[in-house]
């Protein structure tokens, strides 16, 4: 392979490389990235996992002579699976470590790294050609075999993935009909459909149906979902905090996009926040019958003027139920809040979805972002055991788009949401107590010594110590 890549480089050809992630390369992501970057011909690197834990025997051999590859397979396959297989968590950790070096060492100037680029595009709300992260799944892939058999994606098991013979296809409708009648594709579609309400759905794209089928058959589909969420959270962290060491990302801060999430002019807002002398225009504040404060005085999501603590209408512009938390973050932590909502039950509005309490924090720079993220994690760790049963604290990474410049700013958002198994009515009954607990915890955190480490680091150390 090395000789082939060197020859391609001398001939000024450009190629993509598929790098299989096996136990052999685990812990060596930096070495792998630097090695591949040494070949000018390589412009794309795709890191693909060996999720083959379910393999229990080597490939069947036709004939009496066993090829060397089959003999090696037989020796590698054991009772717990093949020696070349990795777990979803191992794969996610390897990709994130590779992504860190790809960014930190400037290798993004040399080659595209997948699935990292696809995750970045989805985080930005853009489309990707990778079917693992788009809505174009197995129905959009056809495989033609030498015997004129037409099948679906070649990652699906054969012969179940077979559709028809090429000679029987007279029109596109014949292929579509075979796809619609395929039990395997119907099963794959049902697996993907389960995740339409997942918080990660718009970014994840539900993953690969072929791989999902294998994990579902093994009863371990959660592991597949967990590793994709870890990938997305890790890449979102890398974009916001590229200086963070690999493996140090917070386990409480999850990618939780809110759309639309934009502001007329973010830089002007940040400058005004820290500058007392800047003129401040009167705000358009209208209050709805349900307590919403915005420019039109209606329930739901509507435009609201961007205020800062020095604006004479600052307190009027913050809904009373969320005011203590906003005060703790702005006056106590000296952070910038760009959005807040006290939560609205909308019990008397048929069909209206309730809104839950949230506060958006807009860090001024990467240093403040890292410090605030760590502080939020530590505060959440302390508050978790004291919150009332119907309320849970969720920390989210999000992005705020400037409508004037188009620039995207990473944000850190707090959400008080209903705990699993509770109703919105129970949540709103406990919300005032939850606000009190969270406010007190944020106030205590304001006086704690600053640290770049979040609570997860200490918890991981304690857990490791307990296992010894």
Task: Give a written overview of the molecule.
There is one protein chain. With 468 residues, the protein is an alpha/beta fold. Helix content is 38%, strand content 15%. It has helices spanning 2-10, 29-37, 68-76, 88-104, 116-123, 172-181, 183-193, 201-204, 209-217, 221-240, 266-273, 323-332, 366-383, 424-446, 455-467; strands at residues 15-21, 42-49, 77-78, 81-82, 112-114, 143-144, 149-151, 162-165, 253-255, 262-263, 286-287, 293-294, 337-341, 358-361, 391-402, 408-418. Strand 11 and strand 12 (293-294) form a beta hairpin.
Question: Keywords, please?
Answer:
468 residues, 6-stranded mixed β-sheet, 3-stranded parallel β-sheet, 38% helix, disordered C terminus
Structural class: alpha/beta
Instruction: Characterize the overall form.
Output: globular
Which regions are unreliable across 5 or more consecutive residues at pLDDT < 50? 463-468
Biggest beta sheet summary: 6 strands, mixed
Beta-strand percentage?
15-25%
Tally of DSSP β-strands: 16
Query: What's the Cα radius of gyration?
Result: 26 Å
The average pLDDT value, as a whole number, equals: 90
How far apart the termini lie comes to 43 Å
Task: Please give the count of helices.
Answer: 15
Helix content: 25-40%
In short:
This protein is an alpha/beta fold and 468 residues long. The protein has 15 helices and 16 strands.
């Amino acid at each position: 392979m090395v000789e082939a890549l060197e020859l391609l480089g001398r001939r000024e050809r450009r190629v993509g490389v598929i790098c299989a992630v096996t136990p052999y390369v685990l812990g060596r992501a930096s070495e792998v990235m630097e090695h591949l970057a040494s070949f000018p011909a390589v412009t794309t690197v795709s890191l693909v996992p060996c999720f083959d834990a379910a393999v229990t025997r080597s490939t069947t051999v036709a004939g009496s002579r066993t090829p060397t590859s089959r003999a090696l397979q037989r020796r590698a396959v054991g009772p717990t699976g093949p020696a070349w297989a990795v777990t979803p968590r191992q794969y996610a950790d390897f990709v994130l470590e590779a992504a860190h070096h790809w960014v930190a060492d400037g290798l993004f100037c040399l080659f595209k790294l997948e699935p990292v680029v696809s995750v970045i595009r989805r985080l930005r709300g853009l489309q990707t050609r990778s079917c693992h992260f788009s809505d174009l799944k197995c129905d959009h892939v056809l495989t033609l075999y030498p015997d004129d058999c037409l099948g679906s994606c070649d990652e699906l098991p054969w012969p179940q993935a077979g559709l028809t013979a090429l000679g029987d296809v007279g029109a596109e409708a014949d292929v579509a009909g075979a796809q619609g009648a395929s039990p395997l594709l119907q099963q794959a579609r049902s697996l993907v459909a389960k995740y339409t309400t997942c918080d990660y759905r718009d970014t994840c794209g539900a993953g690969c149906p072929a791989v999902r089928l294998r994990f579902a058959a093994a009863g371990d589909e959660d592991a597949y979902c967990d590793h994709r969420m870890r990938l997305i959270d890790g890449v979102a962290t890398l974009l916001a905090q590229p200086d963070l060491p690999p493996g140090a990302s917070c386990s409480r801060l999850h990618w939780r996009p809110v759309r639309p999430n934009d502001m007329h002019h973010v830089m002007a807002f940040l400058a005004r926040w820290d500058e007392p002398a800047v003129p401040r225009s009167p705000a358009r504040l209208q209050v709805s019958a349900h307590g919403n404060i915005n420019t039109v005085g209606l329930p739901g999501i509507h435009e609201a003027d961007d205020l800062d603590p020095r604006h004479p209408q600052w307190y009027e512009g913050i809904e009373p139920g969320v005011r203590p938390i906003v005060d703790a973050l702005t006056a106590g932590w000296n952070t910038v809040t760009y959005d807040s909502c006290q939560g609205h039950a909308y019990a008397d509005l048929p069909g209206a979805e309730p809104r839950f309490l949230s506060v958006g924090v807009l860090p001024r720079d990467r240093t403040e972002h890292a410090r605030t993220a760590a502080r939020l994690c530590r505060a959440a760790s302390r508050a978790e055991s004291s919150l009332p049963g119907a309320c849970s604290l969720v920390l989210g990474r999000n992005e705020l788009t400037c409508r004037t410049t188009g620039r995207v700013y990473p944000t850190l958002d707090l959400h008080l949401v209903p705990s699993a198994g509770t109703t919105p009515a129970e949540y709103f009954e406990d919300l005032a107590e939850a606000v009190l607990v969270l406010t007190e915890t944020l106030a205590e955190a304001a006086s704690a010594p600053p640290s770049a480490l979040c609570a997860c680091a200490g918890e991981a150390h304690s857990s490791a110590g307990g296992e010894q």
